[in-house]
C-alpha cells in the first residue's frame, strides 16, 4: 500500500477513480472541475444532476465517461474562511468520504487533486497536512481494496509543499 505524490494533470491519470474538487451542486465549474467536465464529455452533467446536492465534507460517485478512469468521485471541500469555521474537519471528511466511496466500489487506485486549495482558497500547506494524514491513516487502518493513493499537484510550488508535508508526516 502506498501514497504517491506526483506533479501532473489529474485528468490523464490511469486509475480506478479520479476525485473531482466539486461544488455542492455538482455542476461544471472552473479549475480542476472544469478540466474534468471537459475531458469526461457528454453524460457527466446529467449523472451529476441526479446526485446533487452534495454538502461540503461528502462525496458522490459517477462513471468516468471519456476519462481513463472507471469512476469519478465528486468531493466537496470547504471554502476557506480563515480557519475558524471547521474547515480542517470538513476537508478531512471530504478526503475520508471519497476513500470510503472508492473502497465500497472495489477501487484499487485513486487519484486526488489538492481539494479546496484553488478557487476555495484553502492554504496549500495546511491542506496538505490534513489530506495526507487522512490518506495515511486510511491505508493503515481501514482500506479493504485501495492499494495506491495518488495526490496529483498541478504546480511545481504545490508539488514541493506536499512533498515536504509528506516527509514531515513520516519523520
Ligand atoms: N490537475 C491537477 N490539479 C489541478 C488541475 C489539473 N488539471 N487543474 C487545477 N488543479 P480548484 P477548489 C489544482 O480551484 O479550490 C470549481 O469551480 C489547482 O491548482 O480546482 O476545491 C468547483 O466547481 C488547485 O491546487 O478546486 C468548485 O466550485 C487544486 O487543483 C470550486 O472550483 C484545486 O483547485 C472548488 O474549488
Automatic annotation (TrEMBL):
Q: Which residues form the Macro domain?
A: 1-170
- InterPro entries the UniProt entry points to: Macro_dom, Macro_dom-like
Domain of life where this protein originates: Bacteria
CDD domains on file: Macro_OAADPr_deacetylase
Q: Which PANTHER family match?
A: GANGLIOSIDE INDUCED DIFFERENTIATION ASSOCIATED PROTEIN 2-RELATED, MACRO DOMAIN-CONTAINING PROTEIN
Q: Write the protein's name.
A: Macro domain-containing protein
Q: Give the classification, highest ranks.
A: Bacteria, Pseudomonadati, Pseudomonadota, Gammaproteobacteria, Oceanospirillales
Amino acid at each position: 500500500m502506498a501514497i504517491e505524490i506526483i506533479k501532473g494533470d489529474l485528468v490523464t491519470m490511469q486509475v480506478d477513480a479520479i476525485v473531482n474538487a466539486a461544488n455542492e451542486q455538482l455542476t461544471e465549474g472552473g479549475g480542476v472541475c472544469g478540466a474534468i467536465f471537459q475531458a469526461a464529455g457528454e453524460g457527466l452533467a446529467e449523472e451529476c444532476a441526479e446526485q446533487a446536492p452534495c454538502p461540503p465534507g461528502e462525496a458522490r460517485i459517477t462513471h468516468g465517461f471519456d476519462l481513463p478512469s472507471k469512476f469519478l468521485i465528486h468531493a466537496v471541500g470547504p471554502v476557506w474562511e480563515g480557519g475558524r469555521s471547521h474547515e480542517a474537519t470538513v476537508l478531512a471528511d471530504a478526503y475520508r468520504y471519497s476513500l470510503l466511496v472508492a473502497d465500497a466500489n472495489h477501487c484499487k487506485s485513486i487519484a486526488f487533486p489538492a481539494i479546496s486549495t484553488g478557487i476555495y482558497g484553502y492554504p496549500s500547506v495546511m491542506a496538505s497536512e490534513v489530506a495526507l494524514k487522512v490518506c495515511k491513516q486510511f491505508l493503515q487502518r481501514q482500506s479493504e481494496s485501495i492499494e495506491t493513493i495518488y495526490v496529483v499537484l498541478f504546480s511545481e510550488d504545490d508539488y514541493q509543499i506536499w512533498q515536504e508535508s509528506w516527509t514531515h508526516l513520516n519523520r
